[in-house]
C-alpha cells in the first residue's frame, strides 16, 4: 500500500462520516506518527505533509550529516557518503531531508496503520456522537422505529444514529410498528464500552414540559412560565403555570379554544388527562386548585409536617381522590404537601341516623332519644342541653358527651 492508497482509504471514512478537513488531517498525521515511533523510536525529526483533497501524503525524515564512521544514532544522523548518494554536494553539518515510503516501514507496520486508522475514525465518530447528544439532553427528538424487542425499542434517526427507548421509558399505551416515527426527549447518553448509548424517554415530566413549549407560543416566548409538572404517564398530569402579564389568562392560553392547543399534546401522550392550573404562592389556594375538579371548602395546613387536611362536601370526596387515587397523589406531588381528605357535612346535607353512632354512644342512650322521637343527629343537635335534660332521663354529662360526638361528625 502506497502513501496515497492510505489517504484514499481514509477518504472513504471522510465521505461517510462527514469529518472536517482539519480533523481528517490531524487523524492521519497522528496515525503516521504512531507508526514512525514504533519503527524508528521517535518521530520528532519527521515532517508529515497531508493533502486529503488530492489524496496525497508525504513523509520526510530530517537527519544531520556526519563523517563516515561517526554515526551514533541512525534516526538523527546520516553518514557523508550516504548523504551524497541523495545529493552529491552535501557537506558535514548540513541537514538532509529524505522522503520515507510506506513500504520501508514493513508489511506488518502497514497493516497496523490501517487498523489504527479504523480505530481513530471510530473513536472520533463516537466522541462526536457523544458530544452531539450530550448537548441536547432534555430536548425533544424524533426517530424511526428500526427494531422492536420485548424490553426495548431501537430507533434510528435520519443520520443513522441508534437511539434506545426502554420499556420503562414508554407510555403504557404506546404501541409501535417498524417504520413509525416516535417522539420523546433525549434523557441520557451513557458510554457502553467505547460506543455511546443514547436513551430516549416518553415518560419524563420534562417531555410534557417541552411539548407545552412547542405547542403554546406564550410559553415559548416567555410570557407564560411553567412552574411545575407532575404526571402519571399515560394516565393523568397536572401542570402549574404562571404569568407576569395580567392581560394573559395562562390556563386559557394553554388549553386553547375548546381545547384546541392542548389536544395535540394529549394525543401525543396516549390520551393522558392533563389539568392546567394557575400557580399561586398562597399555599391554601394552590392546594385547592391542585385538587380540581373537586371543590374544596377548607384547607388546614401543618407547615412543619408539610401536611394538609382538606375539607369537602361528601359528593366532592371522590372527585378529590380521583380514579385509583391519581388526583390526590398528583396534587400532593404538585404542591409538596401530604394531603388528607376530610368529609364535611353542611346543614343542607342529609341527616345521619343515631344508630350509626352505636360504636361511640351506648345503645340505651340512643333508645332514650328515640323514645322522645329524636332518632337522627340533627334532631338531637337542634335542642339545647337544658331542653334535652327536661325531655329525657339522661344526665347533663351524658348529653354533653353525645352532643360533642355528633358535632365532631358534622365538622369532620
From TrEMBL:
SUPFAM superfamilies: Nucleic acid-binding proteins, Prokaryotic type KH domain (KH-domain type II), Transcription factor NusA, N-terminal domain. Signal peptide: none annotated. One of its GO terms (cellular component) is cytosol. Residues 233-322 form the K Homology domain. The keyword Disulfide bond does not apply. It is found in: Cytoplasm. SMART domains: KH. It comes from the Bacteria. Keywords: Cytoplasm, Elongation factor, Protein biosynthesis, RNA-binding, Transcription, Transcription antitermination, Transcription regulation, Transcription termination. GO terms for biological process: DNA-templated transcription termination; transcription antitermination. InterPro entries: KH_dom, KH_dom-like_a/b, KH_NusA_2nd, KH_sf_prok-type, NA-bd_OB-fold, NusA_N_sf, TF_NusA, TF_NusA_bacterial. Participates in both transcription termination and antitermination. Belongs to the NusA family. PANTHER family: TRANSCRIPTION TERMINATION FACTOR NUSA, TRANSCRIPTION TERMINATION_ANTITERMINATION PROTEIN NUSA. This is Transcription termination/antitermination protein NusA. The gene is nusA.
Amino acid at each position: 500500500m502506497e502513501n496515497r492508497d492510505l489517504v484514499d482509504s481514509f477518504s472513504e471514512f471522510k465521505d461517510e462520516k462527514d469529518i472536517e478537513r482539519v480533523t481528517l488531517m490531524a487523524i492521519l498525521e497522528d496515525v503516521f506518527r504512531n507508526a514512525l515511533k514504533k519503527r524508528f523510536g521517535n518521530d520528532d525529526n519527521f515532517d508529515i505533509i497531508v493533502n486529503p483533497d488530492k489524496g496525497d501524503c508525504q513523509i520526510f525524515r530530517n537527519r544531520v550529516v556526519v563523517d563516515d564512521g561517526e554515526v551514533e544514532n541512525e534516526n538523527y544522523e546520516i553518514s557523508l557518503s550516504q548523504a551524497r548518494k541523495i545529493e552529491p554536494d552535501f557537506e558535514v553539518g548540513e541537514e538532509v531531508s529524505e522522503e520515507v515510503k510506506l513500504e520501508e516501514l514493513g508489511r506488518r507496520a502497514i497493516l497496523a496503520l490501517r487498523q489504527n486508522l479504523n480505530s481513530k475514525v471510530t473513536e472520533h465518530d463516537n466522541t462526536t456522537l457523544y458530544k452531539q447528544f450530550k448537548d441536547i439532553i432534555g430536548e425533544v427528538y424524533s426517530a424511526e422505529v428500526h427494531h422492536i424487542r420485548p424490553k426495548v425499542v431501537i430507533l434510528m434517526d435520519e443520520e443513522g444514529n441508534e437511539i434506545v427507548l426502554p420499556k420503562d421509558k414508554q407510555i403504557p399505551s404506546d404501541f409501535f410498528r417498524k417504520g413509525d416515527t416516535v417522539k420523546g426527549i433525549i434523557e441520557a447518553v451513557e458510554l457502553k464500552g467505547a460506543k455511546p448509548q443514547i436513551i430516549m424517554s416518553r415518560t419524563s415530566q420534562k417531555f410534557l414540559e417541552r411539548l407545552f413549549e412547542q405547542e403554546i407560543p406564550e410559553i415559548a416566548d416567555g410570557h407564560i412560565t411553567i412552574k411545575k409538572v407532575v404526571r402519571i404517564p399515560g394516565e393523568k398530569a397536572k401542570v402549574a403555570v404562571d404569568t407576569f402579564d395580567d392581560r394573559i389568562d395562562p390556563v386559557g392560553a394553554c388549553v386553547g379554544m375548546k381545547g384546541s392547543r392542548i389536544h395535540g399534546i394529549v394525543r401525543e401522550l396516549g390520551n393522558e388527562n392533563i389539568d392546567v392550573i394557575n400557580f399561586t404562592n398562597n399555599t391554601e389556594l394552590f392546594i385547592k386548585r391542585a385538587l380540581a375538579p373537586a371543590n374544596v371548602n377548607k384547607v388546614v395546613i401543618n407547615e412543619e409536617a408539610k401536611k394538609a387536611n382538606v375539607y369537602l362536601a361528601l359528593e366532592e370526596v371522590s372527585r378529590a381522590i380521583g380514579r385509583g387515587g391519581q388526583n390526590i397523589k398528583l396534587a400532593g406531588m404538585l404542591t409538596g404537601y401530604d394531603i388528607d381528605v376530610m368529609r364535611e357535612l353542611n346543614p343542607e346535607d342529609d341527616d345521619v341516623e343515631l344508630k350509626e353512632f352505636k360504636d361511640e354512644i351506648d345503645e340505651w342512650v340512643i333508645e332514650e332519644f328515640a323514645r322522645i322521637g329524636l332518632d337522627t343527629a340533627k334532631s338531637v343537635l337542634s335542642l339545647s342541653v337544658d331542653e334535652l335534660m327536661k325531655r329525657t332521663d339522661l344526665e347533663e354529662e351524658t348529653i354533653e358527651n353525645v352532643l360533642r360526638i355528633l358535632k365532631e361528625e358534622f365538622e369532620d
